[in-house]
Amino acid sequence: MKHPEIKLTVKNRIEDLLRVNSIFESFATQHEINGRLRYHLLVSIEEILTNIIKYGFDEQGVHPIHITFRRIEEQIEMEFEDRGREFNPLEIGEPDFETPVEDRQLGGLGIHLVKKMMDETKYRREGDRNILLLRKSKETPADTP
Amino acid sequence: MQFMQAKRDGTGTVLTFSGRLDTVASGELKQPIRTEIDHYPTNLICDFQNVNYIGSAVLRLIFEAARELQRRHGTFRITNCSSDLRRVFALTGMDHLIEGGPGPQFTHEIANRTLRIFMHGRMDAAHVSEIRLPIRQLVTTHSGPVRFEISAVPYAASAFVHLCIDASKLAKASGHDFGVERVIPDVAHIFRLAGLQTLLLSSV
């Protein structure tokens, strides 16, 4: 049986984030994804997309990014696919938590949040495509740090 | 009717609201809104140009209408909002439905040498990039403690956390402290995950 899913394609522009959010909200309502889980999925979408947009393409210009939201029983999957250079955002270094806030270097925070909020994050390179899969169970408490 | 007029064309329906939308208005609006959604379930725009107040009962009707349209894979948009109404929609997490985006705004005041910046709206990467420069400018030119008051921010991710780190650095450079006040639980959780709970001064 095919699992319910929504596919969309956006461009590598930060303003396209609004459209992705709006379509995700529709998917979330349909599948009764609410509260903090919904919030965490929205944050994860934003962090992954902004990373792909900022670092995923060597050449300037418009590049498509394909996104799939899928529900497999009580699991929510989100897949991001692009044809940029080989780039695994999950390998971005962890932010520095030891230094006082005022001296802290920026970078790595968004991906750190995604790893904390999702149950599973997987990257693979297939041909010239980067494919990133995020998975979160509807039943995992979303408020655990 | 007194509080709402409906106009339809080939592409959808525009509901133009007017006056004070309180509990009394909600009683009169419930059925007509329902009828519009049932008859024309594809595209709905709610125009609030002539509205001076919106209460929780009407907000609930608008929220239910948006949810129903989403369920039917239609589109729902809010248009012509005053800044007060934007703030109300931001507080209820509906500001992403406002046409042209929620346009996060901020106001500020200086009292007892403390610069307090009141923010409202979704603080995602796109919107933070719009306010980063003016916020930096305010913080840089101020000499004294800095506070972000964010009770009307229903959503924030790492871009907003970065803005706070930046403000903290700028305030510290002139020998002053920085903090975030009146934070809703979901946003506070993001700060904790980011290891920045020390910036949180109070919650709502």
Rg of chain B, nearest Å: 20 Å
Mean pLDDT of chain B: 87
Q: Give the biggest beta sheet of chain A.
A: 5 strands, antiparallel
Strand portion of chain B: 25-35%
Low-confidence sequence ranges of chain A: none
What kind of sheet is the major sheet of chain B?
4 strands, mixed
Low-confidence stretches of chain B: none
The helix content of chain B, as a percent range, equals 40-55%
Quaternary state of the chains: heterodimer
Q: Secondary-structure element order of chain A, as H and E? A: EHHEEHEE
- Please give the order of strands in the largest beta sheet of chain B: 1-2-3-4
Which strands sit side by side, in order, in the main sheet of chain A?
A: 1-2-3-5-4
Largest interface, with Cβ-Cβ < 8 Å?
A-B, 32 and 30 residues
Determine the N-to-C terminus distance of chain B. 39 Å
Number of helices of chain B: 6
Ends apart, CA distance between termini of chain A: 35 Å
Q: Which word captures the global form of chain B?
A: elongated
Report the C-alpha radius of gyration of chain A, rounded. 15 Å
> Which range does the strand content of chain A fall in?
25-35%
Total strand segments of chain B: 8
Summarize the structure.
By secondary structure, chain A is of the alpha+beta class.
Protein described:
Chain A has a five-stranded antiparallel sheet, with helices on one face. The longest helix of chain A has 21 residues, at 35-55. Helix content of chain A is 30%, strand content 28%. Chain A has 145 residues and is an alpha+beta fold. Chain B starts with a strand and ends in an 11-residue tail after the last helix. Chain B has helices at 23-39, 56-71, 83-91, 125-141, 158-173, 185-193; strands at residues 4-9, 12-21, 43-54, 75-79, 105-111, 114-120, 146-152, 178-181. Chain B has 204 residues and is an alpha/beta fold. In chain B, the strands form two sheets. Chain B has a four-stranded mixed sheet with strand order 1-2-3-4, with helices on one face. Chain B has a four-stranded mixed sheet with strand order 5-6-7-8.
